Amino acid sequence: MQAKSTILSLPTEELVHPGTRACTGCGLSIAYRVGLKALGKDTILVVPPSCLTVLQGLFPVASTKLPCLNVTFASTAAAATGILATLKARGNEHTTVAGWAGDGGTSDIGLQALSGAAERGDNFIYFCYDNEGYMNTGVQRSGTTPIGAITANTPFKGKLQQKKDVPAIMAAHHLSYVAACSAAYPLDLYDKIKNCLALPGTKYFHIHIPCPPGWGYDPRYGIKIGRLAVETGYYDLYEIVNGEFRLTAASEKLIEKRKLVPVREYFRAQSRFRTLTDAQIDDIQKTIDEKWAGYYKKDE
Questions:
Q1: pLDDT of residue 234
Q2: Would you say residue 142 lies in a domain?
Q3: Sign of dihedral through CA atoms 83, 86, 90, 91?
């Protein structure tokens, strides 16, 4: 395990050109910029239709300096497998292959291909940047949209179903590495990528991405919103290395503090949760408290 990075220890070379087509305050632009620094230049990207295809720009101009294959919605992991096979046939065992897909292209449309690649143990890194909805097509609900969130197709009472726990699904594949990260904690993301590069098989990253237009907050507060998700215990930062689970970064520090920010502050900072009642928020708070009581007990 390497020493924790600081902002001064990050590589100075930028692998994303300045001036992307991302929305103002987009959390993805932070995670993508730092993530590519960790991956390095010897990387091939695979990207399906998503906010990232918008961020990267229209042909023949692209914001990324790395080779990138744009594929269909369902085929990110399958295409990554194909690239690996091509590299192997050419005797190339050093180039990293990384898929970057949104939550819709991961938790819903692309889950079958991802599960198949993970079961086979194909050696690539898969990043799901989770802005909790189909934001690129008008803010429709996805499998990872949280309960109570207003979207274009859950406009009155919000989504009625719980958020799909994709990292847990991927951990059930017995991967060498699974991580939950946040764009609000980019150094944690950077270190986790570095930690997993030498590990075998499929590695899975789930990155919480604040989205101003989809979540309903002023773009300047993206980092604050992302940090609130973690400080309330609503979203956890962790890694699972060969089956061993541990909290990281701000989530790890919450174990020491034994005090969570009330989740009400997170919900009330976003218009998408405007229909949540006090009773619903209390129920969610109870669930969070029970989860963290389990973390505290394990730490004793």
A1: 98
A2: yes
A3: positive
